[in-house]
Write a structure and sequence with these properties.
6-stranded antiparallel β-sheet, alpha+beta, about 1000 residues, about 20% strand, 38 strands, DUF7133, Neuraminidase, ARM-type_fold, SH3 type barrels, heme binding, Cyt_c-like_dom_sf
Length: about 1000
């Protein structure tokens, strides 16, 4: 490579040290920058520097990297992103193998290891080659003759979905527990092994469905399994087995619960296993230096393409950045840093610096898509360097074939971020000579300060133990108890576990390992190490009960939770829960999940817990027990006997908590497909505890001074009683002027008890209900065929307006399981829309031409701005129409000319007639016992006292009236829709897109 590139690292560091860079002007336009020019556009944390490691032509379109023990840098190139090769052409993606032969930190020599690959997404070094994810498969590729070119390919697994290049299996990675993890890319698939070395875990099918799960398999052969978590493009693991994933809107997801807990609890789903360690979605914030374009304008300034999450574990950054989470945001040209701290079973995080990113660029072609740590302990940034990073599948129709979509397909960069101040520890971090490392050196490397070294040592030991485990046993046994770092002790334990399970292994090694685990549980100073030892204890270990009891006596609630659950499930009998664990579980939903074990020995474990929780406690410092009590009550209802349910009803008080516990019991009984009335009765007599709670609930539901939420909670209990008195009470609340939430709950109650007059009560005058309440009424009418038939009668006679049904309710009617009802609905809907179709057809003819967006902007200001906002101008009365990425011009035309076809109840026109004859129209934004508040055109808020109201009616028509065609011509409509669709492109800020002038 030329001398120019060899001096790049120093030049970049020097440029970034200059204070003038903070005021750089954003770099825009359609021209890419050279690596040196792009380097000058970075703004980065003041304590670190950034250097170029590799670039085009050696690297093009990189999406993933990995360093191996030979000093080579593996680079995955997705060269035909986003749509693949042209018809009839071979795939262009490949894996490059880079070397830094002169040791200057720049990888100047590249060899194409494998080419013509179909969308490769990640590599994991293994046995001199790499495990690769690509084309719906997990493969192994290796070079057997030493020329750095792949000449061996094995397919190990196949069946991952291949729907989209951004949503494919990716990031194969060796985990602490000796498994290879694969993020499934969100779309899952049905995966099976094509290699006899792997079989599904017991009880799972050979073709394993992965919807909503990630994937893992034993590195040395054994089983494969679905994993909690659902990663899109990214994976990271810390030294203690904590897995971190990401999706577009979620920059750092911690997988906090394992699959056994999720599978064993009727109330948990795979989604409950994960926790956003970093603020996600619309609450997230990113701070771009260049003008950032997001597919949805509503997502501006937020994470929209989070990827490559990495929890840093090296010495190459300042010490305070250890175990920080770093996430790429390529649409914002930045990498964000979050400082993480343990929070019970999971983590919480805060920004490294407020309103400033760790790394950001003024260069709008900088596209960081992945992160990795290297042997030197530095952080490496994979820069795809493209003009456009968004996949066409997720952009508006008008941008799917934009001319700049492939700009940058001959470019790509990899950057190194490291501390400006080199410490002795950091300088020695890369000093390991792997080629000469014997067993003792590899075991010693488990205690290395850099996580890359620890993981690499683990991998090399795994690769060698099948043929020479004896060389490692003694060293690992010593490391498991005496290694300086907890991280080393954990990896040593897992490697001993792998050795003990080898088919050829001496039984004494496994026995010694089990004895050593007990010693670790009782004596190790780090609770995280103890947790892993608890997990590794064999169920056959005779010391298991003693060891687990020892763990219960510690003061770490997480260790207690892990040990308690293991002890209950292995002993087959209920075990008392430590007070510290109960207290922690009151406020920690993840710890609570550990307590929700299935019944053991025919007994509901949660019954004793709940009874103890309800015992009177001293007031000082007692946490709120409500949430935990409700969860326990659900399990008592599900697993417990009638006698156990009766024990709980004996203990509960007639108060808010008592109501919640009864509700939990009911949910459990129903989930267990049992009869509620029989579950709370003895010899046909309803339990007095339930009667006591019912009486209290009725008093709260009728208390006008109570809040709407409290009254609604009470009604959930009231409706469990199916007596005539309950029906009369619900009818009275339904017909009252109580808050909408209370009346809606009363409707649900009447529907649940099967009120024979239910349909008549609603349909005799539907317009008397506020919009949100009317929508609840419609939902209730759809529950029973006879009620649905009555609703169709009202629609056919005009008593109920079609707009009272939202789109989903209309579709339910059209596709009703009762064919007769479905036919009536389809005929009705067709006839109702016929009168507007002629107008739509007339205006549709004008849509074929090219609209003038700038002319449409003027029309919007004149005709629409009173109720809508665009480009920050107008009034937010009607729905937000600025995000039109998924709406075609034809759909917008229909929405404008037939606004009542499918509208949200929140935008129904609500009409109030006052006693003095005033008629006020608007959106109902608030309703209290004393007043009604309307939002009117231009955002005007009007409040009317109830004592001044003669009538208040829902019109069930859109606030936007029909007849808009009388205001503008077909040609003006074309221009207006062109503006609505293209307002974001008028500035020309998106490369290659016409401005519409």
């Amino acid at each position: 490579m030329s001398h120019l590139f060899r001096t790049v690292p120093f030049a970049v560091a020097l440029l970034l040290a200059q204070t003038g860079l903070a005021q750089q002007e954003p770099i825009r336009g359609n021209k890419p920058l050279s690596p040196q020019e792009s380097a000058a556009q970075f703004e980065i944390h003041p304590d670190v520097q950034i250097e170029l490691v590799a670039c085009e032509p050696q690297v093009v379109d990189p999406v993933a990297t990995a360093f191996d023990d030979q000093g080579r840098l593996w680079v995955v190139e997705m060269r035909d992103y986003p749509l693949g090769p042209a018809d009839g052409q071979p795939p262009q993606s490949r894996i490059q193998l880079l070397r830094d032969r002169d040791g200057d930190g720049f990888y100047e020599h590249a060899t194409t290891f494998a080419n013509e690959l179909v969308f490769p997404t990640g590599v994991q070094p293994w046995r001199g080659g790499v495990i690769v994810t690509l084309a719906g498969k997990v493969m192994f590729m290796a070079d057997t003759d030493g020329d750095d070119v792949c000449d061996l390919q094995e397919t190990w697994f196949e069946g991952f979905m291949q729907e989209n290049t951004q949503l494919r299996a990716n990031h194969p990675a060796l985990m602490v527990d000796n498994k290879i993890h694969v993020s499934n890319g969100l779309r899952g698939g049905t995966v099976q092994s094509t290699d006899k070395r792997w079989q599904p875990v017991k009880g799972e099918p050979a073709a394993l469905p992965l919807q909503g799960k990630d994937f893992a398999f034993d590195a040395l052969g054994g089983t494969f399994v679905g994993m909690p978590g659902n990663g899109q493009f990214g994976f990271s693991e810390d030294d203690f087995g904590n897995i971190f994933l990401c999706t577009n809107r979620n920059p750092c997801i911690h997988v906090a619960l394992d699959g056994e807990i999720i599978a064993s609890d009727p109330w948990l789903t795979p989604r409950d296993a994960v926790h956003d360690a970093v603020i996600a979605g619309e609450a997230s914030r990113v701070y771009s230096l260049a003008e950032a374009w997001t597919t949805s304008n509503l997502h501006a300034g937020q994470f929209t393409a989070a990827c490559g999450v990495h929890v840093f574990g090296g010495t190459g950054l300042p010490g305070e950045m250890l175990n920080n989470a770093f996430t790429c945001e390529p649409t914002g040209y930045l990498v964000q840093r979050q400082v993480m701290r343990p929070d019970g079973l999971t983590f919480a995080a805060k920004r490294g610096r407020e309103e400033v990113e760790f790394l950001a660029s003024h260069d709008a072609w900088f596209r960081p898509v992945n992160l990795n740590s290297g042997p030197d302990g530095a952080l490496y940034v994979v820069d795809m360097y493209r003009a456009v990073i968004e996949h066409p599948q997720f952009v508006p129709e008008e941008l799917k074939n934009r001319p700049d979509q492939r700009w940058g397909t001959d470019k790509g960069r990899i950057w190194r971020v490291s501390s400006k101040t080199k410490t002795p520890t950091a300088e020695s971090a890369a000093s390991m000579n792997w080629n000469d490392a014997d067993a003792a050196a590899l075991v010693g490397a488990l205690d290395h300060p850099n996580r890359w070294h620890r993981s690499t040592a683990q991998r090399l030991i795994l690769e060698q133990i099948a043929s020479d485990s004896a060389a490692f046993v003694a060293g690992l046994q010593t490391a498991a108890t005496t290694a300086e770092s907890p991280a080393a002790r954990v990896r040593a334990l897992w490697l001993l576990d792998a050795i003990s399970k080898l088919p050829s292994q001496d039984a004494t090694v496994a026995a010694d390992f089990q004895t050593r685990l007990v010693d670790v549980i009782e004596k190790d100073k780090d609770f995280r190490v103890r947790r892993h030892a608890v997990e590794l204890l064999s169920a056959d270990n005779p010391q298991l009960p003693t060891a687990l009891q020892a763990a219960l006596t510690t003061d770490d609630p997480v260790l207690q939770a892990v040990a308690w659950r293991r002890l209950v499930l292995t002993s087959g009998k209920p075990i008392s829960v430590p007070a510290a664990l109960i207290q922690a579980a009151c406020s920690d939903d993840l710890l609570r999940a550990y307590l929700m074990v299935p019944a053991v020995g025919g007994q509901c474990v949660q019954t004793a817990m709940l009874l103890d929780l309800l015992q009177p406690k001293t007031a000082g410092g007692t946490p709120s027990i409500d949430t935990l009590a409700i969860e326990l009550a659900r399990r008592v209802g599900y697993y417990g006997s009638t006698q156990e349910i009766g024990q709980i009803l004996d203990r509960v008080s007639a108060d808010q908590l008592g109501m919640q516990i009864v509700r939990g019991l009911h949910e459990g009984v129903v989930r267990g497909r049992r009869n509620w009335s029989q579950s709370i009765a003895s010899d046909g007599v309803v339990h007095p505890g339930f009667v006591r709670i019912q009486t209290f609930a009725k008093s709260i539901a009728e208390d006008e001074a109570a809040s709407a939420s409290v009254r609604t909670d009470a009604l959930n209990i009231v409706r469990l009683d199916r007596s005539d008195d309950t029906t009369q009470m619900l009818v009275a609340l339904f017909e009252s002027e109580a808050p909408t939430a209370v009346r809606s709950s009363a409707i649900d109650g009447l529907a649940a008890v099967g009120d024979p007059e239910f349909a008549h009560r609603i349909l005799r005058d539907p317009s008397r209900f506020p919009p949100a309440l009317l929508r609840s009424c419609v939902s209730a009418l759809l529950r029973r065929p006879e009620w649905t038939s009555a609703m169709l009668d009202a629609l056919e006679t005009g008593k109920l307006a079609p707009a009272a049904l939202d789109l989903s309710q209309t579709n339910r009617l059209r596709n009703h399981s009762d064919k007769k009802l479905a036919g009536r609905a389809q005929t009705l809907m067709a006839s109702l829309s016929a009168d507007r179709q002629a107008v739509i057809d007339r205006y549709s003819k004008a849509m074929a031409g090219e609209g003038n967006s700038n002319a449409g902007k003027l029309i919007f200001a004149q005709q629409c701005a009173a109720c809508h906002v665009m480009q920050g101008k107008g009034h937010a009365v009607g729905p937000d129409i600025s995000d039109s990425r998924t709406k075609t011009p034809e759909q917008l035309l229909v929405s404008i000319l037939n606004p009542g076809a499918a509208i949200d109840a929140n935008y129904f026109r609500y009409t109030v007639v006052t006693l003095d004859g005033q008629v006020l129209d608007g959106l109902l934004v608030e309703e209290t016992a004393n007043a009604i508040t309307l939002k009117q055109a231009e955002g005007k808020m009007t409040t009317i006292d109830r004592e001044d109201i003669d009538q208040a009616r829902t019109t069930s028509v859109s606030l936007m009236p029909e007849g808009f065609e009388q205001q503008i011509s077909p040609e003006q409509m074309r221009d207006l829709i062109a503006y609505i669709k293209n307002w974001r492109y008028l500035s020309g800020a998106i490369p290659g897109v016409a401005t519409g002038d």
